[in-house]
Amino acid sequence: MDSVIRGLAVYFVLLIIARLSGRRTLAQATPFDFVLLLIIAETTQQALLGDDFSIVNAFVLIVTLFATDVSLAFAKARSARLALWLDGAPTVLISNGKIDGEAFRRARVSVSDVLEAARAQQGVASLDKIEAAVLETSGGISIILKEN
């Protein structure tokens, strides 16, 4: 039972930290982000297993983590409020062609990130052609062009 409690505790701590750290996707990860992920994985492994390195304990932890994740997915599908709390809401970075500096600051996104998304999605390299930019809950940036 200790393994299940450890698994649940680590799962929710990681969920909260991931939620608070922002919405970067794996494609936006820096080499340091990768190193940090490896350090977190090693630390998490030690916290989960404690002194019990048995295969049974590892299986119990794996099942606990996946069951918790699946349970939360079902709960989010039934509760919009829970989904909003866990996943957050999209952030409008540019609206009607105007940059929202506060939204950029809160989301820790730069104008160059928006321009990169605009080039990749729409082939546009200039802010003056962007009507709206939205940081989605997945970490991607959606670009809507101005109509000509």
- How many strand segments? 4
- Average of per-residue pLDDT values: 84
- Largest sheet data: 4 strands, antiparallel
Strand content: 5-15%
Instruction: Please state the CA-atom Rg, rounded to the nearest Å.
Output: 19 Å
Q: Give start-end ranges of low-pLDDT stretches.
A: none
For the biggest β-sheet, the strand order reads 2-1-3-4
Distance between the termini: 63 Å
Helices and strands, in order, run as: HHHHEEHHEE
Instruction: Give me the number of helical elements.
Output: 6
State the shape: elongated
**Fraction of helical residues:** 55-70%
Structural class: alpha+beta
Write up this protein.
The chain is of the alpha+beta class. 61% of the residues lie in helices and 12% in strands. The chain has helices at 2-21, 31-49, 55-78, 80-87, 101-107, 111-122, and strands at 91-95, 98-99, 130-135, 141-145. The chain is elongated, with a radius of gyration of 19 Å. The protein starts with a helix and ends with a strand. The relative contact order is 0.12.
